[in-house]
Amino acid sequence: MALEDFAFFRTVPNIVCFYPSDAVSAERAVELAANYDGAVYIRTSRPNFQILYKNDEVFEI
Questions:
Q1: Whole-structure pTM value
Q2: Distance (Å, whole) CA 48 – CA 61
Q3: Which end of the chain is more exposed for a tag (fewer CB within 10 A), N or C?
């Protein structure tokens, strides 16, 4: 799986980039992005992956 897209967006000034590892972190990334005052890129590409984080896990930017 290529990471060129993620590498490209990391060069954009003041952008926040997420690459969630499971469904829980993907949901939290979307919540954080919706409430963030700025540009956010979320790369999702991990179908049917085991859950790594508990539902009450706290994520921060």
A1: 0.79
A2: 25
A3: N
Can you tell me whether residue 17 is helix, strand or coil? strand
Q: How many angstroms separate the Cα of 10 from the Cα of each of 23, 37, 54, 58?
A: 22, 17, 28, 23
Task: State phi, psi for 49 to the nearest 5 degrees.
Answer: -95, 150
* Cα–Cα dist 13/23, whole Å: 27
Q: Hey, is 41 helix, strand or coil? A: strand
CB 11 within 8 A of CB 41: no
Compute the distance between CA of residue 60 and CA of residue 10 in angstroms, rounded to an integer. Answer: 18
- Farthest CA pair distance, the chain: 33
Mean pLDDT of 11-31: 94
